[in-house]
Amino acid sequence: MNPTAKVRPTTQAHELARTIRLRVQGEQLAPGSFFMTEAQLAAEYGVSRTVAREAVSRLQALGILEGRKRKGLLVRRPDPLRLLSNSLPSLANSPHDWQEVARLRYCLEVGAIELAIRAATEQQIERLAQITAEMEVALQSDTRSERSVQLDLEFHAQILRMTGSELIAGMQQVLVQFFQIAPHAEPSAASAERILWEHRELLAAIRDRDVERARAMIRVQFRSSFEFTAADSLSG
Question: What is the pLDDT at residue 206?
Answer without folding.
Answer: 97
